[in-house]
Amino acid sequence: MSVEPETAAAGQPASAAPFPVNVTPSGREALKLYEREIATYLRELPRLLDEGHAGRHTLIKGEEVLGIWDTDGEAIEAGRERFGLEPIFVKKIDPRDPQRFALLEAWLKSQCPS
Amino acid sequence: MPIISDVLQPQGALVDIQVGMSAASALALRLALRSVPSPVSARAVLDSGAEITCVDQKIIQSLGLPWGGATLINLPAHGGLTISAQHDVSLIIVHPSSNAAANLVIRNLAVLEVQLAALGYEALIGRDILANCRFLYDGPRQRFRLRY
């Protein structure tokens, strides 16, 4: 039986070590490259969920949500049409993300306490 | 509906795939009068534990794929909760009959970049693709079937 990280983390006392997150080299680079887009996504996520967009796909540039599509393919097409081969930020709208990004933040802080 | 039926391997349910630039990125390259790299052949495991399809870092780098985001997902085959770069690709699951009409073709797909090659395959076919398929893992008979 597998244990979802969210379940395991929720079962831990507040003082427990942070739940480990695997940060790949490209993930570390992406966190820097998309810092503004990730912040925008997490800020807008409650509204997107309230409006019933869970499971759909959004395209974000900087502080702006540019659109929402049913599939990642449609969001990619829109992003490449507008920005060519520049980095784009296509994200599935996922209600688990606030908790997951909180786990990531706690993990990164534990790795760099200063 | 095409069906792939094969023997389970020690790594699991393996299929042949081709990974290339997404159709949208290929169009952007052509508009810039640049050549589009040829797709790369690889082996993939059908992995119902993976939330999203993953492709080995070396394939991503060899194709020079543009950045498509960052994704934080549960990926049991890669150590659990994982954050990595996302790229857009075209992905074909190649039908063993060599009949191209029986291939599963996805023109624009977001995939996660991870290191997999040491495991004996170069991609994980996740639930984003399996959601549109019927996947039977027949352990007692040591076979699998994928219908799409």
Describe this structure in words.
- The complex is a heterodimer of chains A (114) and B (148).
- Chain A is an alpha+beta fold and 114 residues long.
- Chain A is 51% helix and 15% strand.
- Chain A has 5 helices and 4 strands, in the order αβααββαβα.
- Chain A has helices at 5-10, 25-33, 35-50, 72-83, 97-111; strands spanning 22-23, 57-61, 64-69, 89-92.
- Chain A has a 3-stranded antiparallel sheet, with helices on both faces.
- In chain A, β2 (57-61) and β3 (64-69) form a beta hairpin.
- The model of chain A is unreliable at 1-14 (pLDDT under 50).
- Chain B has 148 residues and is mainly β.
- Helices cover 14% and strands 47% of the residues of chain B.
- Chain B has helices at 23-31, 57-63, 127-130; strands at 3-7, 14-21, 40-46, 54-56, 67-75, 80-93, 104-114, 123-125, 134-138, 143-147.
- In chain B, the strands form 2 sheets. In chain B, strands 2-3-8-4-7-6 form a 6-stranded mixed beta barrel. A 3-stranded antiparallel sheet of chain B has the order 1-10-9, with no helix packed on it.
- Chain B is globular, with a radius of gyration of 15 Å.
- Chain A binds chain B through residues 2, 4-5, 19-24, 26-27, 29-31, 33-34, 37-38, 57, 72-74, 76-77, 79-81, 84-92, 97, 100-101, 103-104, and chain B through 22-25, 27-29, 31-32, 49, 57, 66-72, 74-76, 78-86, 88, 106-110, 113-115, 128.
Q: Would you identify the regions of chain B where 5 or more consecutive residues have pLDDT less than 50?
A: none
Q: Averaged pLDDT of chain B, please?
A: 96
Distance between the termini of chain A: 37 Å
Provide the succession of SSEs of chain B. Answer: EEHEEHEEEEHEE
User: Compute the gyration radius of chain B: what is it?
Assistant: 15 Å
Largest sheet of chain A: 3 strands, antiparallel
Which chain pair shows the most residues in contact? A-B, 41 and 40 residues
Class by helix and strand content of chain B? mainly beta
Subunit arrangement of the protein: heterodimer
